[in-house]
């Protein structure tokens, strides 16, 4: 079967397969650090790594890159596993870089034995300073030429816990004048007397990212290590380490552009600040760009996968427009979810010529004609209804095809009505409309052929369900939240209206027959999710997943 070749990474993988370069199917991995919840950027990487494994008949591991004891937690491990599975993927192996500490230590000793690593007594600050600049070579450490025996002794004592944090590091001995700064004797192991969420107090030396990452890939037999562009300079140390450690046919790194999405931030560090400083209710706040947040908002995993597919992978960084994301979400829901009627901002309508106490059940189609699904329900109709305030204007412009004094509109799935009287309170606010209905127009058409342009949604007042509706919007009010004047940070661009709660919206009663967690399009309003937390047998809490069109752009 021909392999799909859709982007430069799949091209390379297809070539690996064609040339038999690795002698087996492609092996990829998704390597999160368990220091936060996964976000949409991770979703891009997940879809890529797992997608390649599926498309080319290979494997994909889930590997926790958990080499930093200070920030990691088992709670994050659990959330990551849940989110990957929810996105629709199942890993082949589940691995932890912290399980490779012994193996990495062994490699460290081998490097020392070969004269390729040394213990440096400089602190990290001195090491940084002495690394030099792009235009000038670094200054070799005074400890660079220690004997193998002395290095081995010191390394063993580092491991045994004889030295305090920061007093010594193990460094690769490569080239202090190397054009690639990463290659100027990079740090491999550092001393941290810290509790690790998995390894407890077993270790007091911890590998640095560059030391652990490529070797973890090699240990697992990964063929291609897909990572984001900021690791481009690290590719040389990756190759150096897997080569020096003696791996035959080692993995190689391929870099791709990280996802940056307008009106949000995709960095665990920044998302953690939003959580810790209380700007959102938690990692799964429906405004968060986390997988958990999107799930709670009501987005389906199919939409996230489709979004990843749409943006594809590229070699150059570029921001993705929010509209591209919303389009993927709308597109998915449009084809999937039934239509209902809900009135967010209710205005009472009394049909003065409709018999008091009478209730009819009107047939309502669940899907429009261009969606290949069928289904219908009935909606009650009676003398008192609610319509949306936005669908009434007392003094409208000519092309306003909704309700106004003397004008006729069609009620969705129901009769034509004409507004005859506007009732106001003492403050002059409209509190009720009095209308007449035409009993001959139940089909929505007038027998005499008169044309009625507008159709509006409505609910029957007595049977409508009172619901809380949470209108979620973009978390930040500018496309690039980090583009701020000196002295400010991304938090200064938070959108103050990212959540508007409507306490008493009116929704047709059929929604109570569906389980919580159901999704709908409220006709003419948007897509909504019956949020499990807060919903009861008598009432629903609805999250707006996405509006019907891009209302943000003017
Ligand atoms: P953050 O900056 O949010 O902490 P990270 O890259 O440090 O992200 P990791 O847990 O190390 O987070 O990431 C796991 C994998 O997900 C890595 O392979 C990384 O390249 C990828 N990844 C992270 N963020 C993005 C992004 N915005 N776009 C694409 N891939 C990403
Ligand atoms: Mg990382
Ligand atoms: Mg990070």
Automatic annotation (TrEMBL):
<feature type="binding site">
    <location>
        <begin position="266"/>
        <end position="268"/>
    </location>
    <ligand>
        <name>ATP</name>
    </ligand>
</feature>
<feature type="binding site">
    <location>
        <begin position="258"/>
        <end position="259"/>
    </location>
    <ligand>
        <name>ATP</name>
    </ligand>
</feature>
<keyword id="KW-0547">Nucleotide-binding</keyword>
<comment type="subunit">
    <text>Monomer.</text>
</comment>
<dbReference type="GO" id="GO:0004819">
    <property type="term" value="F:glutamine-tRNA ligase activity"/>
</dbReference>
<dbReference type="InterPro" id="IPR000924">
    <property type="entry name" value="Glu/Gln-tRNA-synth"/>
</dbReference>
<feature type="binding site">
    <location>
        <position position="228"/>
    </location>
    <ligand>
        <name>ATP</name>
    </ligand>
</feature>
<feature type="domain" description="Glutamyl/glutaminyl-tRNA synthetase class Ib anti-codon binding">
    <location>
        <begin position="338"/>
        <end position="438"/>
    </location>
</feature>
<dbReference type="GO" id="GO:0006425">
    <property type="term" value="P:glutaminyl-tRNA aminoacylation"/>
</dbReference>
<comment type="similarity">
    <text>Belongs to the class-I aminoacyl-tRNA synthetase family.</text>
</comment>
<dbReference type="Pfam" id="PF03950">
    <property type="entry name" value="tRNA-synt_1c_C"/>
</dbReference>
<dbReference type="GO" id="GO:0006424">
    <property type="term" value="P:glutamyl-tRNA aminoacylation"/>
</dbReference>
<dbReference type="InterPro" id="IPR020059">
    <property type="entry name" value="Glu/Gln-tRNA-synth_Ib_codon-bd"/>
</dbReference>
<feature type="short sequence motif" description="'KMSKS' region">
    <location>
        <begin position="265"/>
        <end position="269"/>
    </location>
</feature>
<dbReference type="InterPro" id="IPR004514">
    <property type="entry name" value="Gln-tRNA-synth"/>
</dbReference>
<feature type="binding site">
    <location>
        <position position="209"/>
    </location>
    <ligand>
        <name>L-glutamine</name>
    </ligand>
</feature>
<dbReference type="InterPro" id="IPR022861">
    <property type="entry name" value="Gln_tRNA_ligase_bac"/>
</dbReference>
<keyword id="KW-0648">Protein biosynthesis</keyword>
<protein>
    <recommendedName>
        <fullName>Glutamine--tRNA ligase</fullName>
        <ecNumber>6.1.1.18</ecNumber>
    </recommendedName>
</protein>
<keyword id="KW-0030">Aminoacyl-tRNA synthetase</keyword>
<dbReference type="InterPro" id="IPR020058">
    <property type="entry name" value="Glu/Gln-tRNA-synth_Ib_cat-dom"/>
</dbReference>
<keyword id="KW-0963">Cytoplasm</keyword>
<feature type="binding site">
    <location>
        <begin position="33"/>
        <end position="35"/>
    </location>
    <ligand>
        <name>ATP</name>
    </ligand>
</feature>
<dbReference type="Pfam" id="PF00749">
    <property type="entry name" value="tRNA-synt_1c"/>
</dbReference>
<feature type="binding site">
    <location>
        <position position="65"/>
    </location>
    <ligand>
        <name>L-glutamine</name>
    </ligand>
</feature>
<keyword id="KW-0436">Ligase</keyword>
<dbReference type="Pfam" id="PF20974">
    <property type="entry name" value="tRNA-synt_1c_C2"/>
</dbReference>
<dbReference type="GO" id="GO:0005829">
    <property type="term" value="C:cytosol"/>
</dbReference>
<dbReference type="InterPro" id="IPR011035">
    <property type="entry name" value="Ribosomal_bL25/Gln-tRNA_synth"/>
</dbReference>
<dbReference type="InterPro" id="IPR020056">
    <property type="entry name" value="Rbsml_bL25/Gln-tRNA_synth_N"/>
</dbReference>
<feature type="domain" description="tRNA synthetases class I (E and Q) anti-codon binding">
    <location>
        <begin position="455"/>
        <end position="530"/>
    </location>
</feature>
<keyword id="KW-0067">ATP-binding</keyword>
<dbReference type="GO" id="GO:0005524">
    <property type="term" value="F:ATP binding"/>
</dbReference>
<feature type="domain" description="Glutamyl/glutaminyl-tRNA synthetase class Ib catalytic">
    <location>
        <begin position="28"/>
        <end position="334"/>
    </location>
</feature>
<dbReference type="InterPro" id="IPR049437">
    <property type="entry name" value="tRNA-synt_1c_C2"/>
</dbReference>
<dbReference type="InterPro" id="IPR020061">
    <property type="entry name" value="Glu_tRNA_lig_a-bdl"/>
</dbReference>
<dbReference type="InterPro" id="IPR014729">
    <property type="entry name" value="Rossmann-like_a/b/a_fold"/>
</dbReference>
<dbReference type="InterPro" id="IPR050132">
    <property type="entry name" value="Gln/Glu-tRNA_Ligase"/>
</dbReference>
């Amino acid at each position: 079967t021909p392999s799909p070749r859709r982007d430069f990474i799949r091209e390379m993988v297809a070539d690996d397969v064609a040339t038999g370069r690795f002698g087996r199917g492609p092996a990829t991995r998704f390597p999160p650090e368990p220091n936060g919840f996964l976000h949409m950027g991770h979703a891009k990487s997940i879809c890529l790594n797992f997608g390649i494994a599926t498309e080319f008949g290979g494997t994909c591991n889930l590997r926790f890159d958990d080499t930093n004891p200070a920030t990691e937690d088992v709670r994050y491990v659990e959330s990551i596993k849940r989110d990957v599975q929810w996105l629709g993927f199942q890993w082949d192996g589940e691995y932890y870089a912290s399980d490779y500490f012994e193996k990495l230590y062994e490699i460290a000793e081998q490097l020392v034995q070969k004269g390729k690593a040394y213990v440096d007594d400089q602190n990290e600050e001195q090491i940084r300073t002495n690394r030099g600049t792009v235009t000038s070579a670094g200054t070799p450490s005074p400890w660079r030429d220690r004997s193998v025996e002395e290095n081995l002794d010191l390394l063993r004592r580092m491991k045994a816990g004889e030295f305090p944090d920061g007093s010594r590091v193990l460094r690769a001995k490569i080239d202090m004048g190397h054009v690639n700064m990463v290659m100027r004797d990079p740090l491999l192991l550092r001393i941290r007397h810290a509790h690790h969420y998995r390894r407890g107090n077993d270790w007091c030396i911890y590998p640095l990212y560059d030391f652990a990452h490529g070797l973890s890939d090699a240990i697992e037999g990964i063929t291609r290590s897909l990572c984001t562009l900021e690791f481009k300079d690290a590719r040389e140390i990756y190759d150096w380490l897997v080569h020096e450690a003696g791996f035959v046919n080692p993995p190689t790194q391929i870099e791709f552009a990280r996802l940056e999405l307008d009106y949000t931030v995709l960095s665990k560090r920044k998302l953690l600040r939003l959580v810790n400083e209380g700007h959102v209710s938690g990692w799964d706040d429906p405004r968060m760009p986390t997988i958990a947040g999107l799930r709670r908002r009501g987005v389906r995993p199919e939409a996230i996968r489709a979004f990843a597919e749409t943006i594809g992978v590229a070699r150059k960084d570029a921001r993705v427009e929010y509209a591209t994301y919303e389009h993927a979400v709308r597109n998915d829901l449009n084809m999937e979810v039934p239509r209902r009627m809900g009135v967010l901002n209710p205005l009472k309508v009394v049909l003065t010529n409709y018999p008091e106490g009478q209730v009819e059940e009107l047939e309502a189609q669940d899907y429009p004609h261009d969606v290949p699904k069928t289904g219908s329900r009935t909606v009650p109709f009676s003398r008192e209804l609610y319509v949306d305030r936005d669908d009434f204007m007392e003094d409208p412009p000519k092309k306003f095809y909704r309700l106004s004094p003397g004008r006729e509109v069609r009620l969705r799935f129901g009769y034509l009505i004409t507004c005859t009287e506007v009732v106001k309170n003492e403050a002059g606010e409209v509190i009720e409309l009095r209308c007449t209905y035409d009993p001959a127009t139940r089909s929505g058409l007038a027998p005499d052929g008169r044309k009625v342009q507008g159709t509006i949604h409505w609910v029957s007042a007595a049977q409508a369900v009172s619901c809380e509706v949470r209108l979620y919007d973009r978390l930040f009010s500018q496309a690039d939240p980090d583009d701020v004047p000196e002295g400010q940070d991304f938090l200064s661009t938070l959108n103050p209206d990212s959540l508007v709660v409507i306490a008493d919206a009116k929704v047709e009663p059929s929604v109570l027959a569906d389980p919580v967690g159901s999704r709908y399009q409220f006709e003419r309003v948007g897509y909504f999710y019956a949020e499990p937390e807060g919903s009861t047998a008598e009432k629903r809490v609805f999250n707006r997943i996405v509006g019907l069109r891009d209302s943000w752009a003017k």
